[in-house]
Hints:
- By secondary structure, the chain is mainly beta.
- It is 13% helix and 44% strand.
- The protein has two domains: 53-279, Pectate Lyase C-like; 281-462, Single-stranded right-handed beta-helix, Pectin lyase-like (Pectate Lyase C-like), CATH 2.160.20.10.
- It has helices at residues 3-17, 21-35, 78-90, 166-170, 443-446, 454-459, and strands spanning 60-63, 72-76, 94-98, 103-105, 109-112, 120-123, 126-128, 143-148, 151-156, 160-162, 186-191, 194-199, 202-204, 211-214, 217-222, 225-227, 238-241, 244-254, 260-262, 266-276, 282-287, 293-307, 311-318, 322-338, 340-348, 363-376, 380-385, 392-404, 410-414, 416-425.
- Helix 1 (3-17) packs antiparallel against helix 2.
- The structure holds 2-acetamido-2-deoxy-beta-D-glucopyranose (NAG) (5 copies).
- The active site is at 280.
Amino acid sequence: xxxxxxxxxxxxxxxxxxxxxxxxxxxxxxxxxxxxxxxxxxxxxxxxxxxxxxxxxxxxxxxxxxxxxxxxxxxxxxxxxxxxxxxxxxxxxxxxxxxxxxxxxxxxxxxxxxxxxxxxxxxxxxxxxxxxxxxxxxxxxxxxxxxxxxxxxxxxxxxxxxxxxxxxxxxxxxxxxxxxxxxxxxxxxxxxxxxxxxxxxxxxxxxxxxxxxxxxxxxxxxxxxxxxxxxxxxxxxxxxxxxxxxxxxxxxxxxxxxxxxxxxxxxxxxxxxxxxxxxxxxxxxxxxxxxxxxxxxxxxxxxxxxxxxxxxxxxxxxxxxxxxxxxxxxxxxxxxxxxxxxxxxxxxxxxxxxxxxxxxxxxxxxxxxxxxxxxxxxxxxxxxxxxxxxxxxxxxxxxxxxxxxxxxxxxxxxxxxxxxxxxxxxxxxxxxxxxxxxxxxxxxxxxxxxxxxxxxxxxxxx
Length: 462
Ligand SMILES: *[C@@H]1O[C@H](CO)[C@@H](O)[C@H](O)[C@H]1NC(C)=O
Ligand SMILES: *[C@@H]1O[C@H](CO)[C@@H](O)[C@H](O)[C@H]1NC(C)=O
Ligand SMILES: *[C@@H]1O[C@H](CO)[C@@H](O)[C@H](O)[C@H]1NC(C)=O
Ligand SMILES: *[C@@H]1O[C@H](CO)[C@@H](O)[C@H](O)[C@H]1NC(C)=O
Ligand SMILES: *[C@@H]1O[C@H](CO)[C@@H](O)[C@H](O)[C@H]1NC(C)=O
């Protein structure tokens, strides 16, 4: 968007509201940042791969069946998959094929790169995990299908990755307090990789997290479905950690924990057209656990529908810790019967014992909510629960309208600074607009401030 229009619009808006002059600078900078989060969408060299069949001439098909896979859902196809991977990975232009119509039982496996050029992982059939936690390889306790060190690989097909998680869920300490709290495998992991495309797959019934993207860059996830029961513990849909330049688009996620969670060392994350429910919503965090450092910047959620989730758009940090969450925009979100539609929780405590307040915390600033509407289950449609010692700053709300079917709605604020404009319901007057010594006056930007005119407003797509 043209910065000039934005500035003009804000100039008029703020003049009209009679807000003090230096607020303008602040607001300009915040929105300028929110508009320009620097997430390029088409910068990944993503070799448009048509279905492998139409281009078979140039491709080398590596079918797991040719390596002895049985695909009856009972026989152990682990060795066949491992051998097929070795061949596919070392052969240029190969297609690692899991053919349709069968179900392959595969143990926890590391599928390691780097591989030869232009590898396609074509999953059309079903891959199932052994369902007994007792027999899981203890050396691979947290993973099932783990792909690492890949560059320029496409994962695609209409296949299903099924973690057979029910026994894992039953043995979780979230289900039964007498169980020990321990981690369980992630169904699909893409780790330490770059220029990766994942398209069309279904990931379901994971033992714990369904799909993790870690330490990777330039990842595109399109039309992926995640499906785990609403009461399955810690089964995050798509979890992003230590990764940059990630786009999730047209994904439908129903699960027992966050539909999407974005944690430490992640930046330039864009989510577009996301359906979430059941689940715990779209989250940044948790961050700052055990006094750790957490940094997440430049996150955009644009166009989402959340239905009967326990949270809508959430930022969660533990007391203690350091780092920051900065430059986030949640926009064009429709909520239906969501318990906490808009929430910042700096007192997050997912622990059997209570968490003490501390003086340090992960700092939260430059968070924008725009065009968010729908229904809330709780009275507190908006909650900005920020640390007394590390306040949230520059929270901006524009065109937010949240209603409760039978009753009133309100906004809770603790130590949260920001402002709203346009329709904001419930009112966010509890956001203090005084800038308590926090950041954000960039003098260089002042020179650009233009005279507001009507034309500019008309063309502004705020
Ligand atoms: C797969 O795991 C089972 C135990 O669940 C084990 O008996 C079997 O040997 C494993 N297969 C391979 C190829 O390691
Ligand atoms: C919880 O686990 C304990 C020990 O494994 C077991 O005795 C008990 O029946 C379980 N409770 C429920 C509600 O499943
Ligand atoms: C968070 O990421 C930073 C930067 O990569 C790293 O130094 C730090 O150890 C990470 N913190 C945690 C808790 O993993
Ligand atoms: C507001 O968000 C809703 C829900 O995503 C969308 O349908 C609508 O087009 C958006 N309105 C504007 C003005 O962008
Ligand atoms: C921590 O601080 C918040 C905000 O002041 C307060 O509401 C909460 O009760 C405190 N929690 C504890 C455990 O002291």
